[in-house]
Design brief:
The complex is a heterodimer of chains A (301) and B (365). Chain A is mainly α and 301 residues long. Chain A contains 13 helices and four strands. Chain A has a single domain, classed as MetI-like (MetI-like fold), CATH 1.10.3720.10. Helix content of chain A is 70%, strand content 5%. The two termini of chain B are 35 Å apart. Classes of the chains: A mainly alpha (301), B alpha+beta (365). At the A-B interface, α8 and α9 of A face β6 and α2 of B. Bound molecules: adenosine-5'-diphosphate and magnesium ion (MG).
Chain lengths: 301, 365
Amino acid sequence: MNLWLPKSAAGKRWLGLAPSYFIIGIFMLVPMVIMGVFSFLEPNPYGGVKPVGSLAAYVKLFFEYDLEDNLVFNPGYINIIFRSFQLSFGATLLCLVFGFPVAYYITLQPENRRNFYIYLITIPFWTNLLIRTFAWIIILGRGGVIETPLLAAGIIEDSLRMMYTDGAIAIGLTYSYLPLMVLPIYASLEKLDFRLLEAASDLYASRLEVMTKVVIPLCKPGIIAGCILVFIPCLGAFIAPNLLGGGKNLMLGSLVQFQFASARNWPFGAALSMLLLSAVVIMLIFYARAASKRASMEGSD
Amino acid sequence: MIAAIDIRGVTKVYNPASNQPVKALDNVSLTINDNEFFTLLGPSGCGKTTLLRLIAGFEQVSGGAIMLFDEEIVNLEPNQRPINTVFQHYALFPHMTVADNVAFGLERLRKPRSEIDATVERVLTLVKMKELGDRRPNQLSGGQQQRVALARALAPSPKVLLLDEPLSALDLKLRQAMREELKQLQKETGITFVFVTHDQEEALAMSDRIAVMSNGEVQQIGGPTDIYEHPVNRFVADFIGDTNFLDGEIVSFDDDLVTCRIGVQSMFEAENSGGHSIGDKVTLFLRPEKITLSPPDQASNVKTRPGKVANIVYLGNQTAYTLDMGDGIELTAQARPREDGKLPFAMGDSLAVGFSARALRVLAQ
Ligand SMILES: Nc1ncnc2c1ncn2[C@@H]1O[C@H](COP(=O)(O)OP(=O)(O)O)[C@@H](O)[C@H]1O
Ligand SMILES: [Mg+2]
């Protein structure tokens, strides 16, 4: 008999789950706690933190010191945060617009071909995101793949100046995270009973109404999951903003990265991260609320 | 009279371009009258669902025409055809309440809200589901889902209602109750029903007319008694009910009766359906319930033959007896149990087996 094994069912369950608790603890909670603690410390000018408590990092989010050392409101960082949300929202929308038809198309394919298409969707993940984003510089940039033929054909006379714009960032983000939109939508579409589409058209629904009244409502969980999976990493992204936005159109992610790598203000970077984290958590709570309300409304399947 | 649906030489081939084309329907022609309960009956895979899907518009015909009240419909989309379907697996919208499901068709037809609400209530009352309008489909039993599917298809008042084996997923008692209700519903609404089933009993009990199908072809169209009593071929006779088949050769005939030799020397008389000549190879068929069994000493005035009980299958309200008639001939007959519940005959009993010549019919080979 193993006397040290827990006897109660609850104890046994805890033991079974222990490895996952351990992994979540090591790889998620501990780093988060460290970040939280760092955000309340003073920066060390040579990198890292000084073990001195301070709220300076959070103050810096909203205020700055003017020439006379007065604390005045500084909308600079708030604007960057606001812009980040805007751009992430735009990129998420673009991902949805392009991703949904792709997922739908794959679902309509014969079963053996579907897996092949899904495999194709995941191929970009095999190459480093940095390299793939560089490719966009070649596509969008001055004298790039898009401009050169248009210039040669005389359709445009000057550079389109597509690089280093919000548009370029949005394209880069959309490109980076499109698979994260396609996969969950595909997963929910795959479970869709296609006989329901026939039933709808039998009941006088046009093609558009079949989509809006049956397909989209039924794969809403997949759409929402896809939006969350795209929106959250967009908020924290720094490769696309840095490379395609030229670093002058900062986003939250690049700002954080900048604080740690260049500005040597770890507490401020940590405070920004905590802000990002709380925004994400609040959004997820809303989503969970809505999902559980819907689940209780529809009953358990 | 204009036919509700006129199927004219319809052929359907699935995957025509592939190396394995499937001919699901072969030159099918049939006419379904207005206000009729019409049944497509046949074994699984004979093309019933295919025909229904062609009428609904989910599949395209490979050849032929389909007329709905004299109007060609093969080029219309499903949502342009005033035809509704009750699907085999109901296909209720899981994200909508029962009432929303029923209202779906009316909303797509842009009916005014007041009319939609009134119709939904009326139709749900018709199928006895008025109290459950706020439920979701997954909160309903199979029988209730069946009713909602029916209400949803009836609500837009289609010109024709298609039902694809709607009762097959229900248990026996419910199935029998629903037979009555469906028949009643068809009479009340006056809508033409095209009902698909592989259950011959269901078809006989409900239909005004039946089309018996096999291998993508229509074998026979007729009323229930036509089909049961006067099947045109061996397939129909065999598929509808239990039957004794006797293969033999005509040796003589007069105006009323033909005489056939079955086995080596047994002579059987059967109704003369005309067009036979001496020496024809024919099949006679005889329904088990037309055979009377009695102990040899109690034989009544009907002409009887001796037979011996070779096998017994107890069925509750009936018992099926396989009788050895000698000369290599076996017949199956039925007998009711006695009042005390005991079986009337035992294994090996010698019996007087009686049937009239009018009960025996000649089938085309
Ligand atoms: N979508 C399809 N593709 C290929 N063959 C099909 C398809 N649907 C039905 N069939 C074939 O057509 C024949 C008739 O099928 P069906 O109409 O479903 O028969 P039933 O409803 O009488 O059981 C069957 O042999 C079936 O395998
Ligand atoms: Mg079928």
